[in-house]
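Renewal narrative, Specific Aim 1. Our central claim is that a sequence can be written position by position from structural information alone. The example that follows is taken directly from our test logs and has not been curated for this report. It begins with the structure tokens describing the chain, in the order in which they were read.
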């Protein structure tokens, strides 16, 4: 069976390869109907981690959501939905001259 090159289903999570000679690989969520912008799977050695990429104050930021062995793709997508909702709420209530991060560090 050929290994997939994109992340679209739960079955892809543990078969996506780490390219030879590379320390890590990043795969974006490419689900046909369930895709979440900013959701990434980082493959580093035998470890697979869910990461949410977003922009804040003009900078690219990332937030680690958890290990893929402990959180399924569906739960990672729900978490990203929740984070996006929170960031929109913070954006509405943010003072004009104060910068408040959308997520705690």
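The sequence written for that structure reads:
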């Amino acid at each position: 069976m050929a290994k997939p090159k994109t992340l679209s289903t739960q079955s892809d999570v543990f078969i996506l390869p780490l390219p030879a000679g590379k320390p890590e690989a990043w795969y974006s969520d490419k689900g046909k109907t369930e895709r979440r912008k900013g959701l990434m799977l980082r493959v580093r050695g035998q470890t697979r981690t869910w990461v949410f990429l977003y922009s804040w104050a003009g900078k690219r930021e990332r937030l680690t959501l958890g290990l893929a062995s402990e959180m399924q793709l569906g739960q990672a997508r729900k978490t990203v939905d929740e984070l996006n909702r929170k960031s929109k709420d913070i954006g509405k209530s943010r003072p004009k001259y104060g910068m408040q991060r959308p997520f705690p560090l």
